[in-house]
Amino acid sequence: MQEPWNDPAVLARKYAAAVYRLAYARTGSPADAEDIMQETFLRLMRTRPVFDSEAHAKAWLLRVAANCASDLFRRLFRRREAPLEDHLPAPQPPETGRVTEAVLARPARYRVPIHLYYYEDLSVAEIAAITQTSQGTIKSRLFRARALLRKKLEEENHDTGPVQT
């Protein structure tokens, strides 16, 4: 019997939203996030990797999504390879509030670690593995991103009142 973390359909149902959110955090575009999510699951179907655990499967999917987002920025022309299947619709873009908008306004090098740390509840070590960056760099980016977010939200708070999430 196949372990649930090695079943692509189970993984797609469980982690489609996480892959989409990461892609959306990286690109800021619902259409590009859908393309990245689709490519991530196409790669899962093509390669059929064998995972040791559910955490390994999640990390693989998020690493592939991060790589696909990087690939998207390197391509001159974007194209769709296949439409999304009916049984795997793209999640709706995350609700936006002042904090979400502030996160999305940060450069990708800060946006991705913030998203993975706070929204996907990953550790610094897991983020470093997914982004293929050192743990020290991730810690530094989280520190800087928090400072930038704090400054931005304090400026907005000064202008408009209390921060709402």
How do you describe this structure in short?
With 165 residues, this protein is mostly helical.
Question: What report would you give on this structure?
Answer:
The protein has 165 residues and is mainly alpha-helical. The chain has helices spanning 8-27, 30-47, 54-74, 98-104, 108-119, 124-131, 135-160. α1 packs across α5 (108-119), α5 (108-119) crosses α7 (135-160) and α6 (124-131) crosses α7 (135-160). It is globular.
Keyword list:
single chain, about 160 residues, mainly alpha
Outline the low-pLDDT stretches. Answer: none
State the major sheet: none
User: H/E series, N to C?
Assistant: HHHHHHH
N- and C-termini, Cα separation: 44 Å
Radius of gyration: 17 Å
What portion of the residues fall into strands of 2 or more residues? under 5%
Into which percent range does the helicity of residues fall? Answer: 55-70%
Approximate shape: globular
Going by helix content, strand content and strand pairing, the class is mainly alpha
Write down how many β-strands occur, each being a DSSP E stretch of 2 or more residues: 0
Helix tally?
7
Mean pLDDT score: 81
